[in-house]
Design goal:
This protein is of the alpha/beta class and about 200 residues long. It is about 20% helix and about 30% strand.
Amino acid sequence: MTCRLFASNMSDVQLVIDVVDNGGQWTHREWRMLRYLDVNTKILSNKTPLSEFRQVDGLILSGGAARVGLTGELGNCAEYFELDVPILGICAGHQFMADFYGGSSREALKPEFGEATITLVNGGGRLFQSTPTKQMVWESHNDEVIELPKNFTITAFSPSCQIQAMENEFGNRFGVQFHPEVDHSEYGQEIFSNFVKICKSSKN
């Protein structure tokens, strides 16, 4: 059963986009980026039951430790996919999303740490709108998505990781292997801003 939690539709009310903490080292940066973009946001433990969520317009699933996105269990994150709001998975959140929807993740043949260059596919979809085809991002992962879920497309790749980003055909599920919340990701703020716009458009 699909449920939708949403904030008031009054135009002067802030969007509500919360961050699910999967143990990643930069979860607070995701929260800070949303705050900078004037979003009403807070950090939630991934053990939080869906029934205890406030009304949200979107959700971010943070990164986590190595292998955590491959276990098939990431707190209550599977339950959160019942929400009919845009969801962005970052690093381990991206891997978990792929596996949840029928894709596959595994230990990376070439783990990536530090700066890397990604290339967008067909403009990169909604999440990468108005950003260049090639851009520098910050990587910190031992694992990666190797098989897309059904109804998803690749929106970015790098020489050592073919699924750096993905988006579903419904335009409400997004995953990125890299960390847009880190300053070294040169268009990270634009990516977050695009996600906020997607949440706003979905709400309206």
